[in-house]
Automatic annotation (TrEMBL):
NCBIfam families: PLP_synth_Pdx2 (TIGR03800). One of its GO terms (biological process) is L-glutamine catabolic process. Gene3D superfamilies: 3.40.50.880. InterPro entries: Class_I_gatase-like (IPR029062), PdxT/SNO (IPR002161), PdxT/SNO_CS (IPR021196). Pathway: Cofactor biosynthesis; pyridoxal 5'-phosphate biosynthesis. L-glutamine binds at residues 62-64, 123, 152-153. GO terms for molecular function: glutaminase activity; pyridoxal 5'-phosphate synthase (glutamine hydrolysing) activity. It comes from Agromyces luteolus. Its EC number is 4.3.3.6, 3.5.1.2. This is Pyridoxal 5'-phosphate synthase subunit PdxT. HAMAP family: PdxT (MF_01615). Keywords: Glutamine amidotransferase, Hydrolase, Lyase, Pyridoxal phosphate.
Amino acid sequence: MVSLRDESLGATDAAGPTVGVLALQGDFREHARVLGELGARVVLVRRPEDVEGIDGLVIPGGESTVMDKLSRAFGVAEPLKRRIAEGLPVYGTCAGLIMIADTLLDTIEGQRNLGGLDVVVRRNAFGSQNQSFETDLDVPALGERPVHAVFIRGPVVEAVGERATPLATLADGRVVAVEQGNLVGTSFHPEIQGDHRFHEYFLAKVRAAVTAAA
Ligand SMILES: NC(=O)CC[C@H](N)C(=O)O
C-alpha cells in the first residue's frame, strides 16, 4: 500500500530510472505500485521541485479538468511543459492522455493541457461512467497476446497527426493508444488490469533516454 506521504516509492535500487507520477489527483497510487514492481524509483510529483530529477513521468487517470487546475495552481504545469518540450518521456493514461494531447475536444471552458502529443483527443467519447467497458485489444508493439483494456469514461483519439503513430484501435477503427517518440498515451487504464506491458514499454523509453543522455 502506498501512503500519501511517501514522496519516494518503489525500488531503492539506484540502477532503476527515476519515474515521476503526477500525484495531484486520480489513480496515481496504482501507477506508482506498478512502476515500483518493475524496478523504477518512483517520485510523486506535486511541486515544481519534484519535476527536476525525474527521468520520465506518468500522468494517471482521473479527471483532466481537475488535474489541469491543480497542476497550474501548484506550479508544476510550466516546468512539466518545459521538460516535455526537451524530450522527457511521458506516459498518459485516460485523463493523462488528455493532458498530453495537443488538441482537445469537449473540454470545459478554460481547460488547458500540457500538450506534446500530435493528436486530437475527445474527452468522454464513450459516454458516462456507467457506459464504461472492457475489451481485448491487439497491440502489435506489445506482442501477440491481446491487452485487456478497461475504459472508464475514457477519451478517444479522433485524429493522429503526422508525428504520432497509433498503437491500438478498437474493432470500429477508433484509435485508443498512440505514441510519438518518448510520449505514449492510452485511452484506457493498464495500471488496474494487472498487465504491465504498457508500463514496461514506457520504461524502455525512459531507460533509453537516460542512456542517451549519459
Ligand atoms: N478515467 C479517466 O481518466 C476519465 C477521464 C475524464 N473523463 C477526463 O476528462 O479527464
